[in-house]
Amino acid sequence: MFRQHQITEPDSERLAAFLPGLRAAVEAASQAGPIGPINTLLEQHPPLIRVDDHDGEGASHLHFAPNGEDAVSWLGRSCSAALAHVVCGDPAVTIGQCSAVDCERFYVDDSRNRTRRFCSNACASRTTVAAYRARRKATG
């Protein structure tokens, strides 16, 4: 994705400083609010909306950050705009937090009926196996 948008790899220190705010905004979007963390991200990384056709003629789409920008600014602008759309009720996107014990990951729920509960098949399987073992242990 970075290469496609002429973005150099992020500086690890700047990225580490950016990630807690992004996590707070993603968590807020997954719960449909509070909006404070998303507004903070928007203030720190305001989107610069533009139409881009880098995928070829007839494939125009919105970008929220210019190609070639530094990685943290590009991520911040892109993520802040996307999360603002989610928290304002974009019906095409639902963000959830994994229900598996000890997993703190988030995911985009693109299932047909928006009932996804886990970030991956590994977390779903681990949870299913743990529940099965607990039932077996309880019955003797």
UniProtKB/TrEMBL annotation:
UniProt xrefs under Pfam families: zf-CGNR (PF11706)
Q: Which InterPro entries match?
A: ABATE (IPR010852), ABATE_dom_sf (IPR023286), Znf_CGNR (IPR021005)
Task: Tell me which residues make up the Zinc finger CGNR domain.
Answer: 95-136
What is the name attached to this protein's record?
Answer: CGNR zinc finger domain-containing protein
Q: Origin organism of this chain?
A: Streptacidiphilus pinicola
